[in-house]
């Protein structure tokens, strides 16, 4: 029997299946996105204020849960940047950062951080169906993903004491399995970035790569 | 948190609890706790969905 589902709920299901299907090349995303109680997805039918995201990120951080915020109504880069600027203006916990990449001046690299309850700067990861995005992050919808839960990865030595990122995710894996997933992730992401020629290190602390034209919106 | 006051949006599965945006903004943790327990929570006003939250309540089979 077919079941009619709310369109926004269908977006949630689609995005979770996309993550689970290893489209990002990340073996940890594939693993965690389908784990019980470990990965929340929020889909928004329209523009919502920043406190909706602050409340979600804080709650999921307290629960040691990865969270993705999905915005299916954002269809182009300018709308995305203007909306992110509006979120930054509403909440002091959000910061947009123009990132300079010496070996890539053809695109605009935008970093996004959110300040956790513990005062750490949490690096957000962006996804979008735009051609300027790196292939592993070309998702069916615009989305932001975060690990707002502090440093919970026993196998990661933090390089910056004031920051937290997906490297700090609580994964519950034993070391051999963790290492195996890292090796697979590096190989699979590398394979996805051969055409067009690209490399994952360009995207450290970068949420979105966008056309240069939209960078002036932040000036 | 009060009982939901809005109707489920058209097409939403009947068992999914619907919260108002005022309820979510007042206490997002309660809405998220409901999603963690039941798998889904919806925030809607006057039948219009504004947000859907999904948290697996069991390990999902890996997609092929």
Descriptive notes:
The complex is a heterodimer of chains A (219) and B (64). Chain A has 219 residues and is of the alpha+beta class. Chain A has one domain. Chain A has helices at residues 7-20, 27-32, 50-62, 77-90, 175-192; strands at 39-44, 66-71, 94-99, 107-115, 121-123, 125-127, 142-146, 163-164, 208-211. Chain A is built from five helices and nine strands. The longest helix of chain A is centred in the C-terminal third of the chain and has 18 residues, at 175-192. Chain A is globular. In chain A, the strands form two sheets. In chain A, strands 3, 4, 5, 8 and 9 form a five-stranded mixed sheet that branches. Chain B has one domain: YefM-like fold (3-Layer(aba) Sandwich). Chain B has helices at residues 21-26, 28-38, and strands at residues 18-19, 40-45, 48-54. In chain B, strands 1-2-3 form a three-stranded mixed sheet. The longest helix of chain B is centred in the middle third of the chain and has 11 residues, at 28-38. The termini of chain B are far apart. Residues 1-12 of chain B have low confidence and may be disordered. The interface between A and B is large, with 39 and 33 residues.
């Amino acid at each position: 029997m077919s079941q009619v589902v709310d369109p926004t709920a269908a977006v949630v299901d689609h995005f979770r299946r996309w993550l689970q299907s290893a489209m990002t090349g990340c073996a940890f995303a594939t693993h965690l996105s389908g784990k019980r109680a470990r990965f929340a997805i929020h889909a928004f039918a329209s523009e919502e204020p920043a406190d909706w995201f602050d409340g979600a990120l804080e709650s999921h951080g307290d629960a040691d849960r990865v969270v993705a915020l999905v915005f299916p109504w954002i269809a182009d880069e300018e709308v995305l940047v203007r909306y992110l600027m509006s979120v930054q203006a509403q909440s002091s916990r959000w910061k947009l950062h123009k990132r300079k990449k010496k070996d890539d001046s053809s695109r605009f690299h935008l970093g996004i951080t959110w300040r956790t309850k513990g005062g750490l700067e949490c690096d957000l990861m962006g996804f979008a169906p735009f051609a300027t995005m790196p292939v592993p992050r070309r998702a069916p919808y615009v989305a932001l993903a975060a690990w707002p839960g502090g440093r919970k990865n026993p196998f990661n030595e933090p390089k910056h004491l004031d920051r937290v990122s997906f490297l700090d995710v609580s994964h519950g894996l034993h070391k051999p399995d963790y290492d195996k997933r890292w090796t697979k992730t590096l190989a699979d992401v590398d394979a996805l970035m051969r055409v067009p020629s690209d490399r994952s290190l360009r995207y450290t602390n970068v949420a979105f790569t966008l056309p240069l034209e939209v960078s002036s919106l932040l000036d | 948190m009060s009982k939901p006051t809005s109707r489920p949006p058209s097409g939403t599965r009947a068992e999914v609890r619907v919260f108002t945006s005022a309820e979510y903004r007042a206490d997002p943790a309660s809405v998220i706790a409901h999603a963690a327990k039941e798998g889904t929570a919806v925030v809607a006003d006057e039948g219009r969905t504004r947000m859907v939250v999904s948290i697996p309540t069991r390990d999902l089979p890996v997609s092929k």
